[in-house]
């Protein structure tokens, strides 16, 4: 019989997770642990924020969501709320199972339910998708963010918000191809799934993946998750889902949250999961060409104007001009018949 | 005069712009504002872990309760998570189990005995002593008045039907067994539990 | 559950019917997804609604609530007709060959012996022909037309696929596809598991629903085998424990019985419990009944229970009715015949049927005592909450005492899971405020009552004064003391019955298991089936070795499972007549030539020879029962019965309402509604986001499904002008509720007996206390009638009407 | 009374030797400089959020959060202020035929050969362009700005529209800064201009050289006043 209660003591040595966790099925430590997700592991940072020169090479992680195993129980939502200490409001029923009705700054993940009459089989299907941050390899939020270091990407693929740096502009919300980040209207900071970066940093998987009763959500290295997905897809094909496949959209460089879909040919069946997401051209242009070109134009114009002001003579008013003016004024005043004189 | 002044003004302005630009380029802003990347502090550090069982359904998932002393010095639950060593749930929890912390710490937890007097519109506090004495007195009186020792045929039946007891569904075996002993010893037959529904 | 949660991974086919495993038991359902993923298992769901279980199923079929017996009998018919029978199993391990009395028969939906006045059957003809030798007569060739097998064939003959379509509303092709999938599991190497719950129990013929599937499982050879079984998914965390411990009107821990008035003395009581084997050479384990019973009496009353006073037999109450169950007590309350009522962690105001009647009944009590960690509606039944609880407080003269108790996080002890595992847990925190442990509260009440009897005397104080109470602190018995008491202790030295010189356990020690219990007063044991849980090896319930050497999900050293740490009941049946596993790839136990060995504790004497002693040792026949004799009040075979409130008449007998022997109180007769007034079928259920009414107090669960709603089909919504997300009023003959409408394609109208039947789903969770939005439970609508055998209320099929309603009422 | 076609009623020749002309009254100048102040603040805060290299400018406002909430309010202030300017100046900024000639002879403008150009009223085409450029760009910035003002209008438009709004806002901002540069440059390069907005007056020579028609009209207006 093992000891039921353990008391962590301050004297316990600080251990550190050396690499990314390979599973969410483990019990978290209560001893102090050094985090391996910090500045040293940052590979991208918004708005030219600081990145590590030689980032810690962590194994790329991924969360795999197997929709064919998902029972829509919302344990992921519950675990997410509890781990992240959020407080979603108690709303009302509007004829849907989605509660809250959308992602919020207090609800980082949401089960979305779609009723689908499959025209090929004649069967009714209830497609339930866990929505949340996809942790894009090429994150649109990070690209759109104007605050240096407010959004970072770690070498394991996690895209995380550094809230101290967030200025609350909401550009990331516009930049996200999946419509994920949500503004906290009180703090004016944007929140989204962190992939439980605080857990991953000490070798634990995300709270949702650990909680998921049917292990429809699994967590591990991206390679392992891709292999697992292939196994699941094979099983699904054997059950008549000819178009089963993996959703790891390349338009955003692949994602660190992936789906196994029964109908991978039609992602939009799953409550409008984008068929082929990419960072919006508008955002790309805004953050691409507009910034340097605009800045260059302004800089050049300013410099040019300054140079011209400095080195050209300018358009000066001459003494003759003043004289001409006096003449003109006098002439004009005098030329008017019935003038009573100068009213100056 | 005007002209020169103007020109100086313009130069100043331009210079300020360039300076600001350079400062920005040099990382002036970041050094000032950007917090270095970090994750949230791991919140389970220095808590106590206790193995327990989810009290909801009969899958009986293994859970670990994380607790630490609250302001009053009493140990309070700060987090609950599935026990990955448990052979049935393997660390997983359903939406109820995953939110157990807010069950334990619910606002509607009862914290003191209350009594509602006949016809009253509200509960009022009562001490444990008074509450238990009232209950014991009522039981004794009712039992003495209504306990049936023999039936019409004179067969000893020793049953008490005017008091009933509805037992729980999530108490431990030990509580249930003690409850059984107490209820049966008094001859109460109106005894049932949640299994009925 | 006959098997364990982890065993489900061994299955080839999961049938979820009469339940909604994914929503009600998500973490147990994991083992279904595991079986699907790693064994290629298939999942079939049969349910009135397309549930979240159906969302991950391979095949789904709709069924009209309350018509399951037709579906199940039709499956049996199809198996027999298509020879999908595990013949070796059926012939050897069931009573298929037993000859039934000539008088037994069935016509017009009724078995022989019905007495309409008594609403009861004379069950004497529902039995075997017993020979002069005292053993049952059998025909192993199954040729005799009166053998169980041929009677069963005749009984199920009416249940054709067309009948399924007509009565259940299940399209014939869907039924046939399911029959085919199930038929594959008659193979010796393929098993099916049945996972069910309240979807089968909450009917006036709930027990017969379950028997129907159990019979099918026997025919397929799936009982006792890995990945098979009848798996009742128990609702609450210790429902199993409380049932094991007999916290019911008529039970004694370990499924022993409280005597009735017809058993006025010890000898008579034991006589009807002789359990003489009905076949030669069989083990009839219940022959040990006296040992368990005497040990229980010793645990209860110690020295006061002696052989000369029949072990204090008269300390036990004697029943005049089958049971003073919850419904009967509320009925008596309503008749002003109950004065005091205790609710320990139970919220009957929302959990029992016909809330209007409950409020009326509670209002007639003198004293109600609530022990609960949380606020409940029951504790505040007298408090006016506008339309949500429209009572006149001043007119209610009931005194209510509310005692704050601890919850799981604050106490220590064992809970019994659905797979019969007793798992110990420890306290993590202290109860809030002045809340106390339940054991403390019970001890306080008892000690105070006892003290009153000591000082004042009174009526028959003996059982109270003599109750064994040898706890170190009489004010607070400790969990380990109580657990040890349940396990059992040797009061005198216990010797081996085969070798009187061999002492097994010395006086004062814990008995090793119930095999050491004696009927001479030398042992005490609070609950014989738990014997072995806390013996001299220590607290076995606290074991935490999760190893699974066989890979079959047995986990023999994790906690402790009753009986005797056995993980699969009837596991002897997993092997053939030679003791070899039906499926060599899933060997759970096997006969070595000398004894039974394997991955689990054999459910038979280890030396019982396979060809001689049959597996079902708890039956005096030694075999399982396709024909249940007179054990059930409503028939030895399941026969179709409509719910008490049904949109169609019983196809066998138009005069028959509901279950003809279900108990109906006179005052409730007039509260049953008819289809003319209430044309829609309602069924109630719990959502996966919630746990009954408890999670109403939890802000997280309240947020995940915040407000009361009902679900209905697009077609019905159109017909009634109901909009998705709009308000509706739903009413039955007993009351009404208001809720939001969820209009969905997951519920589709069915055609039954030629007419469309609409189903309305009514989830439960809402009441007038807690964090969630205020609302009503379905029990404002449900009928006050229970199952004929176990009195479980008919929550799954009743009639209502529905109409659009306007917004939030003022409260 | 002589027609007032090229001047404001408040424009006035204040003295004859030397000629000094009032070009802007105090109110207009305050209005202008308030607008200018808003513009500068907007430019600084906007630039801070426009390009990471300039994020450091947020320090001027007390950090990113403050910059983020302040910027749109200044934008509103500027819009209102500019509206005041607009009302005062719009009618003399309506394009006229001579603006075409002026545009056609832009080379002479740059070379300073103003004698080759037609006489101009109070504003030349360049000034009018600045005026209208400011107007349209402020309008674009205002509308797109409100669309992306997340704090108060999170659900005003779809994400897709907001993306376009942000794009329009940033392009407009670049353009308006270019217009500003042109404005300042012209004011500086055309010497004697700045005092119009500082003191409110210009010299007769400046007026004669750049806005002769305006000067002429003022002179005529003042000579034709009815006798006391």
Automatic annotation (TrEMBL), chain C:
Coiled coil: none annotated. One of its GO terms (biological process) is anaerobic respiration. Transmembrane segments: none annotated. Residues 1-381 form the Molybdopterin oxidoreductase domain. GO terms for molecular function: 4 iron, 4 sulfur cluster binding; electron transfer activity; formate dehydrogenase (cytochrome-c-553) activity; formate dehydrogenase (NAD+) activity; molybdenum ion binding; molybdopterin cofactor binding. Residues 682-798 form the Molybdopterin dinucleotide-binding domain. Its main location: periplasm. Keywords: 4Fe-4S, Iron, Iron-sulfur, Metal-binding, Oxidoreductase, Periplasm, Selenocysteine, Signal. It is found in: Periplasm. GO terms for cellular component: periplasmic space. Its cofactor is [4Fe-4S] cluster. CDD domains: MopB_CT_Formate-Dh-Na-like (cd02792). NCBIfam families: formate-DH-alph (TIGR01553). Belongs to the prokaryotic molybdopterin-containing oxidoreductase family. This is Formate dehydrogenase. It comes from Paracoccus sphaerophysae.
From TrEMBL, chain D:
Signal peptide: none annotated. Pfam families: Ni_hydr_CYTB. The chain crosses the membrane at residues 33-57, 69-90, 130-152, 164-189. GO terms for cellular component: formate dehydrogenase complex; plasma membrane. Its cofactor is heme. It is a multi-pass membrane protein. It is found in: Cell membrane. InterPro entries: Cyt_b561_bac/Ni-Hgenase (IPR011577), Di-haem_cyt_TM (IPR016174), FDH_cytochrome_b556_subunit (IPR051817), Formate_DH_gsu (IPR006471). This is Formate dehydrogenase. It comes from Paracoccus sphaerophysae.
């Amino acid at each position: 019989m093992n000891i039921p209660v353990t008391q962590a003591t301050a004297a316990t040595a600080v251990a550190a997770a050396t690499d990314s966790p390979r599973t969410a099925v483990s019990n978290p430590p209560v001893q102090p642990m050094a985090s391996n997700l910090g500045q040293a592991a940052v590979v991208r940072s918004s708005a030219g924020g600081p990145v590590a020169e030689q980032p810690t090479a962590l194994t790329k992680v991924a969360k795999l969501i197997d929709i064919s195993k998902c029972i829509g129980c919302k344990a992921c939502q519950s675990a997410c709320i509890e781990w992240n200490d959020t407080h979603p409001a108690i709303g009302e029923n509007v004829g849907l199972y989605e509660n809250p009705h959308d992602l919020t700054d207090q609800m980082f993940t949401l089960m979305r339910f779609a009723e689908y009459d499959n025209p090929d089989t004649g069967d009714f299907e209830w497609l339930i998708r866990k929505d949340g941050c996809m942790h894009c390899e090429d994150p649109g939020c990070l690209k759109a963010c104007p605050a240096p270091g407010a959004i970072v990407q770690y070498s394991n693929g996690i895209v995380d918000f550094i809230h101290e740096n967030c200025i609350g502009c909401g550009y990331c919300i516009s930049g996200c191809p999946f419509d994920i980040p949500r503004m906290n209207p009180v703090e004016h900071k944007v929140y989204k799934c962190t992939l439980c970066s605080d857990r991953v940093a000490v070798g634990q998987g995300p709270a949702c993946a650990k909680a998921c009763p049917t292990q429809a959500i699994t967590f591990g290295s991206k390679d392992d998750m891709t292999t697992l997905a292939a196994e699941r897809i094979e099983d699904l094909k054997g059950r008549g889902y000819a178009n089963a496949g993996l959703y790891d959209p390349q338009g955003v460089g692949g994602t660190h949250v992936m789906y196994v879909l029964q109908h991978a040919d039609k992602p939009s069946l799953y409550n409008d999961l984008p068929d082929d997401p990419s960072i919006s051209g508008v955002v790309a242009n805004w953050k691409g060409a507009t910034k340097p070109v605009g800045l260059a134009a302004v800089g050049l114009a300013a410099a040019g104007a300054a140079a011209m002001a400095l080195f050209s003579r300018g358009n000066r008013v001459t003494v003759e001009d003043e004289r001409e003016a006096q003449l003109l004024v006098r002439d004009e005043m005098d030329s008017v018949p019935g003038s009573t004189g100068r009213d100056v | 005069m005007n002209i020169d002044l103007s020109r100086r003004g313009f130069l100043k302005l331009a210079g300020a712009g360039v300076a600001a630009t350079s400062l920005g380029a040099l990382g002036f802003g970041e050094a000032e504002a950007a917090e270095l990347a970090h994750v949230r502090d791991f919140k389970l550090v220095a808590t106590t872990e206790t193995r327990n069982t989810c009290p909801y359904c009969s899958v009986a998932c293994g859970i670990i309760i994380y607790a630490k002393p609250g302001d009053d010095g009493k140990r309070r639950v700060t987090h609950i998570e599935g026990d990955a060593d448990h052979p049935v749930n393997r660390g997983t929890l359903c939406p109820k189990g995953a939110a157990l912390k807010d069950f334990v710490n619910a606002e509607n937890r009862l914290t003191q005995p209350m009594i509602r007097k006949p016809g009253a519109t509200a509960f009022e506090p009562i001490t444990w002593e008074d509450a238990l004495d009232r209950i014991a007195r009522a039981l004794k009186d009712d039992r003495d008045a209504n306990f049936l020792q023999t039936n019409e045929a004179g067969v000893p039946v020793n049953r008490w039907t005017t008091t009933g007891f509805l037992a729980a569904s999530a108490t431990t075996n030990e509580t249930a067994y003690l409850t059984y002993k107490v209820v049966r010893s008094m001859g109460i037959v109106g005894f049932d539990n949640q299994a009925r529904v | 559950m006959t098997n364990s949660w982890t065993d489900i991974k061994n299955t080839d086919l999961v049938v979820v019917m009469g339940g909604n495993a994914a929503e009600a038991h998500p973490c147990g359902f994991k083992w279904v997804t595991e079986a699907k993923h790693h064994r290629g298992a298939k999942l079939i769901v049969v349910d009135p609604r397309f549930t979240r279980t159906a969302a991950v199923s391979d095949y789904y079929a709709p069924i009209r609530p309350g018509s399951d017996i037709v579906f199940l009998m039709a499956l049996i018919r199809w198996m027999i007709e298509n020879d999908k029978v595990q013949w070796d199993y059926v012939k050897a391990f069931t009573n298929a060959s037993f000859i039934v009395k000539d008088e037994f028969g069935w016509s017009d939906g009724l078995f022989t012996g019905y007495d309409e006045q008594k609403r009861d059957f004379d069950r004497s003809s529902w039995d075997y022909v017993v020979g002069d030798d005292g053993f049952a007569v059998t025909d192993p060739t199954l040729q005799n037309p009166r053998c169980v097998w041929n009677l069963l064939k005749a009984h199920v003959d009416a249940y054709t696929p067309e009948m399924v379509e007509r009565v259940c509303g299940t399209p014939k092709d869907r039924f046939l596809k399911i029959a085919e999938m199930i038929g594959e599991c008659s193979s010796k190497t393929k098993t099916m598991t049945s996972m069910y719950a309240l979807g089968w129990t909450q009917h006036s013929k709930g027990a017969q629903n379950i028997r129907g599937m159990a019979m099918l499982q026997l025919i397929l050879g799936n009982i006792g085998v890995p990945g098979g079984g009848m798996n009742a998914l128990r609702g609450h965390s210790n429902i199993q424990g409380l049932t094991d411990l007999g916290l019911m009107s008529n039970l004694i821990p370990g499924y022993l019985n409280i005597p009735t008035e017809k058993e006025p003395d010890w000898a008579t009581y034991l006589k009807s419990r002789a359990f003489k084997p009905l076949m030669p050479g069989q083990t009839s384990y219940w022959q040990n009944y006296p040992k368990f019973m005497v040990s229980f009496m010793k645990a209860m009353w110690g020295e006061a229970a002696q052989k000369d006073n029949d072990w204090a037999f008269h300390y036990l109450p004697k029943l005049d009715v089958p049971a003073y169950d919850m419904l009967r007590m509320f009925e008596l309350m309503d008749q002003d015949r109950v004065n005091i009522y205790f609710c320990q962690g139970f919220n009957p105001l929302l959990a029992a049927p016909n809330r209007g009647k409950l409020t009326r009944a509670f209002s007639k009590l003198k004293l109600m005592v609530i022990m609960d960690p949380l606020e409940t509606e029951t504790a505040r039944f007298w408090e006016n909450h506008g339309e949500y609880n429209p009572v006149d407080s001043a007119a209610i003269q009931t005194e209510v005492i509310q005692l704050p108790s601890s919850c799981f996080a604050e106490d220590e002890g064992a809970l019994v899971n659905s797979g019969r595992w007793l798992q110990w847990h420890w306290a993590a925190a202290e109860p809030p405020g002045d809340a106390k442990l339940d054991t403390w509260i019970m001890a306080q009440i008892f000690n105070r009552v006892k003290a009153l009897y000591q000082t004042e005397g009174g009526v028959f104080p003996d059982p109270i004064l003599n109750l064994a109470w040898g706890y170190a602190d009489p004010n607070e018995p400790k969990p380990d003391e109580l657990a040890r008491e349940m396990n059992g202790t040797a009061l005198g030295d216990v010797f081996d019955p085969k070798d009187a010189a061999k002492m097994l356990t010395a006086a004062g020690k814990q008995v090793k298991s119930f095999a050491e219990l004696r009927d001479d007063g030398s042992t005490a044991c609070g609950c014989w089936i738990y014997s072995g849980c806390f013996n001299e090896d220590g607290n076995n319930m606290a074991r935490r070795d999760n190893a699974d050497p066989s890979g079959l999900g047995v986990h023999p050293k994790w906690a402790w499972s009753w009986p005797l740490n056995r993980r699969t009941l009837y596991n002897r049946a997993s092997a053939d007549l030679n003791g070899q596993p039906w499926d060599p790839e899933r060997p759970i136990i096997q006969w070595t030539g000398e004894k039974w060995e394997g991955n689990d504790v054999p459910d038979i004497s280890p030396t019982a020879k396979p060809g001689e002693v049959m597996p079902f040792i708890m039956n005096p026949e030694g075999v399982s029962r396709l024909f249940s004799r007179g054990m059930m009040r409503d028939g030895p075979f399941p026969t179709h019965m409509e719910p008490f409130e049904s949109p169609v008449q019983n196809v066998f007998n138009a005069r028959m309402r509901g279950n003809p022997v279900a108990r109906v109180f006179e005052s409730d007769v007039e509260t049953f509604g008819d289809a003319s007034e209430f044309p829609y079928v309602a069924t109630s259920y719990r959502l996966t986001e919630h746990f009954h009414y408890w999670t109403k107090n939890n802000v997280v669960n309240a947020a995940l499904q915040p407000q009361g709603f009902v679900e209905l089909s697009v077609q019905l919504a159109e017909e009634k002008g109901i909009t998705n997300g709009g308000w509706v009023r739903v009413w039955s003959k007993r009351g009404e509720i208001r809720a939001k409408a969820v209009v969905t394609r997951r519920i589709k109208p069915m055609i039954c007996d030629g007419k469309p039947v609409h189903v309305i789903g009514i989830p439960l969770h809402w009441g007038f206390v807690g964090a969630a939005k205020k609302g009503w439970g379905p029990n404002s609508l449900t009928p006050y009638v229970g199952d004929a055998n176990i009195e479980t209320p008919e929550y799954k099929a009743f009639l209502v009407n529905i109409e659009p309603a306007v917004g939030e009422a003022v409260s | 009374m002589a027609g007032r076609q090229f001047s404001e009623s408040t424009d006035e020749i204040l003295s004859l030797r030397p000629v000094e002309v009032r070009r802007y009254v105090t109110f207009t100048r305050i209005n202008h400089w308030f607008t200018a102040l808003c513009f500068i603040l907007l430019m600084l805060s906007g630039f801070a959020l426009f390009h990471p290299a300039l994020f450091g400018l947020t320090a001027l406002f007390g950090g990113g959060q403050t910059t983020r909430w302040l910027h749109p309010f200044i934008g509103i202030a500027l819009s209102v202020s500019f509206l005041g300017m607009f009302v005062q100046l719009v009618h003399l900024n309506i394009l006229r035929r001579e603006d075409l000639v002026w545009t056609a002879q832009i080379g002479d403008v740059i070379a300073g050969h103003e004698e080759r150009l037609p006489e101009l009223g109070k504003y030349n085409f360049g000034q009018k362009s600045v005026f209208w450029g400011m107007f349209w760009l402020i309008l674009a910035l205002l509308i797109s700005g409100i669309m992306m003002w997340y704090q108060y209008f999170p659900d005003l438009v779809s994400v897709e529209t907001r993306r376009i709004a942000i794009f329009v806002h940033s392009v407009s901002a670049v353009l308006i800064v270019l217009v500003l540069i042109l404005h300042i440059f012209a004011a500086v390069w055309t010497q004697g201009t700045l005092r119009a907005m500082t003191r409110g007056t210009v010299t007769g020579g400046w007026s004669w050289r750049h806005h002769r028609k305006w000067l002429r009209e003022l002179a005529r207006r003042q000579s034709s006043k009815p006798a006391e």
